[in-house]
Design goal:
Length: 232
């Protein structure tokens, strides 16, 4: 069933999109698709940081368009007052696209996949893109979508700092996605967070044992479990 959105350039439309993306990394499915590009193009400008989930998603799609493009079909999406994106537009993003051009012309803007990208992360992304281009690959294969459940030590654990610590883990082939806090009981909440990995580059077990359960992150994290693991 196609997803339907109202006017995405209104506060009401952005709020609904932000709520929709709270537990999703993409508009439909577990990889960037034609649906993401349709919604991306329907936005007249980059969303305000007030809309945390929309901003995170928007920056990720913007970076994908400039690095490798998007080719997956998607399940279908309708945006009020906006025509769907064609296959040709997805395969070859317009050179004159104002959003991409503005981002490329501004030397001070970072390629921000997650909303908090550093210069080092930008350099890593650029190096990876160059390596893919040099090897003649158009896109990586063998990707998986993973849902992790991260539990704190107690009700006094700062969940905002816990999530910041989790997202601070950066490595080639790893993309953090949407997240949410789920009540456990007695005032305790657990973090559920999506991530996409390139199977040949990232081992989820290694990510948990060597990074998420090691210092200094284990100051906040009591346990980390795989809730869902799906090949893309």
């Amino acid at each position: 069933m196609a997803v339907v959105f109202g006017d995405l350039n209104s506060a009401t439309g952005l709020k609904k999109l932000d709520e929709y993306l709270l537990t999703r990394s993409y508009i439909t499915g577990y990889q960037a698709s034609k649906d993401d590009i349709t919604v991306y193009a329907a936005l007249s400008k980059a969303p305000s940081s007030e809309y945390v989930n929309v901003s995170r998603w928007y920056n990720h799609i913007d970076a994908l368009l400039r690095i490798s493009g998007v080719s997956a079909e998607g399940s279908g999406v309708t945006v009020e007052g906006f025509a769907p994106i064609t296959e040709e537009e997805i395969a070859t993003p317009p050179v004159g696209d104002t959003k991409a051009a503005a981002a490329e012309d501004d030397d001070d803007d970072d390629v921000d996949l997650f909303g908090e990208e550093t210069e080092e992360e930008k350099k890593a992304v650029e190096e990876r893109a160059a390596a893919v281009k040099a090897s003649g690959k158009k896109k990586e294969s063998g990707k998986s979508s993973v849902l992790l459940e991260v539990k704190p030590w107690d009700d006094e654990t700062d969940m905002k700092k816990l999530e910041e610590a989790v997202r601070s883990v950066q490595m080639e082939g790893l993309l953090w996605g949407a997240s949410k806090l789920v009540p456990v009981g007695y005032g305790i909440k657990k973090l559920q967070i999506m991530l996409t990995i390139v199977d040949d580059l990232v081992s989820v077990d290694n990510l948990i044992e060597e990074h998420l359960m090691s210092e200094p992150i284990n100051e906040y994290v009591q346990s980390c479990d795989i809730i869902a693991f799906n090949k893309i």
